[in-house]
Amino acid sequence: MTKSSAPGKIILFGEHAVVYGRPALAVPVTQVHADVDILDSARAGIWIDAPEVNLRAELNTLPSDHPIASVINNLFFLRRVSPFPNLEIKISSTIPVASGLGSGAAVTVALTRAVAAHLGFPMTDEEVNAFSYEIEKLYHGTPSGIDNTVVTYARPVYFMKNAPIQTFKVGQPFTLVIADTGISALTKEAVEDVRRLWMNERSRWETVFDKIGEISFTARRAIEAGKNELLGELMNENHGYLQKMTVSSPELDRLVEAALHAGAVGAKLSGGGRGGNMIALVEPEKAEAISLSLKRAGAKHTILTQVL
Ligand code: PMV
Fold it and tell me: What is the pTM of this model?
């Protein structure tokens, strides 16, 4: 049996501006993960069992543009695998879908690593990341690549499009509460709307993206130096810019307000916006109370995570 696992992720700073070449910071969320198990099988075919998405099917019966079929077929094509082996592939995930926690990227990365290892051609992180980015592009329009990168390396990442990958060290661990609005929103649509704003008023939005880029840069320095107290203000500032970009929503704003009111050091939406998750930076002893306040303010569920 071959096993592989990949964590969820959360964007700390810089979403949307990252699409325009500015830096963003993202960290793995190890409390949630996608897991893949592969077994050789006596039964003909490649059987996929993914209970969370109600999928139990043989590879050839899936539409060719199905994300799971794309990963397997493209890998087999690239590595010239022929004839196809008989396999049982079990895919499970605890990462909420369509909420900015990187569930798609985590399934792609775990599945890619497991298939490659099982067939005897293990891939390096660089190869897994490049392949997963190609798969992300099939489903998310013009993704920056931040999701597949942080999920592949499972380390904090300072990400800039078309630049070498930079992972970084956390000087002092810090605690986040991640709260889900329960609203699933398509990142692709939010990205397209921001593009329309940018097309109409380029210089205004370039200035906003620059400011967000500076926030990401400053935040990375603060995190590396263990000066976590600076992060709260940067989060609040970043959220303000995301509101201007129209990617927040009443539900996200309500959760951000509730977190700050309950004593969070800072809070912002995370990811594509419009729905999905927000994050609050909290002192560890206040994490439970803030999580409760977020649920009272409408959060469907919360995750407490330590960034190490
Ligand atoms: O919604 P998420 O967590 O997949 O993040 C999207 C981040 C964006 O910057 C909005 C888009 C991208 O491709 O980087």
Answer: 0.92
